[in-house]
Amino acid sequence: MDKKIMDVLTNPIKCKLFLEIQNCGETTAKHLSETFSDIPPATLYRYLKRMTNDKVLKIVNQTQVRGALEKTYAVDIDMTKDFKEILDSNSGEAYMQSFMQYIIGFAELFQDYCKRDDIDIVKDKSGFSLSPLYLTDEELEMLIGNIRDVIKPYGNNTSAAGRKLHSIGVIISPPKME
Fold it and tell me: Is residue 156 part of a domain?
């Protein structure tokens, strides 16, 4: 998987900007700033510029608004293409590379957190777990659907008092050979 895409998926701020733009089809920095008031404007514009330079986003329109140029952004990548290529080629090497990029991105989130002076693991509700389960293919599909259904209602939450940005990752290991 392209490193630029993994960078977006593993960076909480870039990921929520990307998902909002994808949900809207097209949107402006003004809309993103209003939707995500917790992101400082300088950070928002820096990430939009970087994501545009990396060809993750594209500018589809520019409008003059009171002396400033307002840009309208849209997604410029096909997120399913890389995964489809891995699935079509059934390449263990490419699959492992994608998994390692995912793990490294998650490790960076934990590393940034652990370097802070103000961490409180219990209060911050951070954690991880492993649950080995014997499942049929049908039971696994049902479990995945249930997890998706539980998370989905929270996907459109915006920044608000009391809300903190968390990244929740789900990893389903390949079956262990017995």
Answer: no
